[in-house]
Specification:
With 568 residues, the chain is α/β, with parallel strands linked by helices. It contains 16 helices and 27 strands. Helix 11 runs antiparallel to helix 12.
Amino acid sequence: MKYEEYQKLRRAALGQAEADLLLANGKLVDVFTGEIVESSIAVKDGLIIGVSRSYQAKKVVDLEGAYIAPGFIDAHLHLESTMVSPAELVGEAVKKGTTTFIVDPHEAANVSGADGIRYILDQTGHSPANVFVMMPSCVPATDLDDNGCLFSANDMYPFMGNPRVLGLGEVMDAPAVLEGDPRMFAKFALFENRTIDGHAPYLSNKQLSAYKMAGVDTDHEAATFAYALEEVRRGIHVHIREGSAARNLEDIVRGIVAEKIDTEHFSFCTDDKHIEDILREGHIGYNVKKAVSLGLSPVKAIKMATINTAKCYGLKQVGAISPGYQADFVILDDLQNFHIRAVYFKGKKVEEREQVHVPKCPSHLRHTIHLDPVKKEDFLLPIRKRITHVIGMEAHQITTSNLPVTFAKTENFEPKDGFLKIAAVERHKNTGKIGVAIAKGYGIRNGAIASSVSHDSHNIIVIGDSDADMARAVNEIIRVQGGYTVVEGGKVFETLPLPIMGLMSDAGFDKVDHLLQKMKNKAYEMGVSKELDPFITLSFMALTVIPTLRITPRGLFLFDEKGLRPVS
């Protein structure tokens, strides 16, 4: 703490002057000792100045025995995936108890480069929460991706002095690390004294060791307890993910409980979570509650949502309730259901109906779909080989399986028996690239669904059982300059416009939630498997750094421990 600030606070800390706020008669969750201590918390100028019942304050709030936990921290998320503006998302999620967000804006960067990152920073600069940013490390995700912008080590320099920039975002291009690509290590060099986030699904033991040795500190891609344990054993801090499509918490936490594993090197994250799921389930508080329901002790779960993450990222003023820490609290009725009574940020209560200032989006970020209309002939798919590789879509996961299937030879595959066409259409530079493949497990009938949210390059992805409906869906996305759409029998049923970079809406979460629910219900009526999220699951089918089969504008690709390569 600086001298001037200390001088302003020390008399109140010593009990010689009034505090601004006293949260009295609470049960403090002490994340340092693991105890629950009956105490009161004194706050001045947004900081905790003391933990004692003896302080005097201008305002006293009697907690009547409620629990006081540090504000929760989301260890890794993409704000863009919520589909509402960053300012609005933070303003809503903080009411669910998350007071610190560690954001990787690589979705925005893949579309609009540095301008996209500046948009995220500007949007969240005056939020009622702490919003930190990790510099996107892989834009594009691989050299075989067709995205909107490149973002190199040189492009990161203007952001390095920003105190809200914590480190390097998830390093998705593991092959570039393992092969010693100098471009990747130039980025590592910039952040050698800061946290470097990883993205390492299913590396072999030796590959994982080499990946860690390069400087990677964290990972959020562990889908099983066994893999998470291997990572922690190598010193990698694991963020347990519970998002909308990828839900890995249950398997990992069950393993932790069963094997009595130390939880110091585990945290919680959402990664990609729709606003509708945040409104219905909650945010990081949901992860905490679910972990406790699986047998994890409440204090350990709270530590994983607070101090563990703060230590991981070198955040010395959040994650605990202690003198000198920021006064970010969650007031809980109990430690089983985790009903939130109130949330405080910098010593001020976050109001349920608090108005969030949403800065205006620059006009050039609202026109990012650069693509001529498509026609049904663009989705022709000849079958000329004995074996065709089919994308197997998996329940509650964003990984896929490689299904070798024999089809009759034809000049254009006709979807049937649950086998659908899936395509990725390049939308940034109007190159005309369209990759078409076959997918199974999605289940739509008599129509198509398309999205301009398509990780990580965010081209347009479309799936359906009719070439004409697929073309209709893509053209609707072009018309509205980005979004989700459902087409049935040649007609657009409904569209959710996402005009901000083709990723987000500024129409408000109520409208977004209403349209999304309407469209999801229709998708399920049309046969989409209820074990998938119709839009989020689809949005990951082009992500070339997740196993196994992926569709891109260049065609079908296979990603495994050997790297990324086209499938002929």
